[in-house]
Design goal:
The structure is a homodimer. By secondary structure, the first copy, chain A, is mostly helical. The first copy, chain A, contains seven helices and three strands. In chain A, strand 2 and strand 3 form a beta hairpin. In chain A, helix 1 packs antiparallel against helix 4. Chains A and B meet through helix 1, helix 2 and helix 5 of A and helix 1, helix 2 and helix 5 of B.
Chain lengths: ~120, ~120
DNA sequence: ATTACATTTCGCCAGATAACGAAATGAGAA
DNA sequence: TTCTCATTTCGTTATCTGGCGAAATGTAAT
């Protein structure tokens, strides 16, 4: 029962749904999500830990960055049905469309200043 | 987006999940749900209004009683996918099993004292 | 070693939520 | 009408949640 409510609690915040839908495009690091949601990084980090705790997303380190991605069906028994529902319910959501556009445009090498990984310089 | 979070907020409370699973057996009146959840009727009424607000359940009057039931797919575009997920995630939940047992045993004519409808007397 | 910086953790505050009992509502019984 | 009683609404309280900034953490650059 706790596991069930945990998942729905994780899904019951608009910013967390935005994060999930953003991650459907591609993995993102925290600073990219911060840029798009326009929230404090401590707030975004908290949201991500809630999503991770519900096994909806996974994280992996890459230099100083932490990349977040949607869990695979093997990692989360719920992810497929949850994403299917989100796709259906947020099909024509303007906020999601706008976020997706920004995800495509955002460039972590511009937003964040990690020198080591600034391949473009 | 609001509609989406509303549904997940409705699902993010253990007592509301218990109510939904109980209603999968058959429609129930408020006093029957109160009996099984062991909460104040004002609390149960509030939970039911949240579920109704999310279009997950519907109510109809019957004498002094108000019967609640799971919405049909026509009434809620989300109900089928939600129930499928709940069935999966709460498959072996002991609380749900215990509640289902009580739902089968509970008798509104014993719990509530509505004289008009006390057919058994 | 020291600095730089992405991320997380901590402490705090404002608003939301779940619980209760009491009062209000509404429909049938007397 | 007046009473009864299932249900809802109201008012209150304790707890949870989401937000922020500051401090802590960890890793890479200098």
């Amino acid at each position: 029962m706790r596991a069930a409510t945990n998942i729905y609690k994780a899904l019951s915040d608009a910013n967390r749904l935005r994060i999930l839908m953003m991650l459907r495009n591609k993995p993102l690091c925290v600073c990219e999500i911060v840029e798009i949601l326009e929230l404090a990084n401590s707030t975004v980090s908290k949201h991500l830990s809630i999503l991770r705790n519900a096994s909806l997303v996974m994280d992996s380190k890459s230099g100083r960055w932490v990349n977040y991605r949607i869990s695979t069906p093997g990692e989360s028994p719920d992810i497929e049905i949850v994403l299917a529902h989100l796709d259906k319910i947020l099909d024509r959501d303007e906020q999601v469309a706008s976020d997706n556009k920004k995800v495509r445009e955002v460039d972590r090498y511009v937003i964040c200043a990690s020198p080591t990984l600034t391949v473009t310089e």
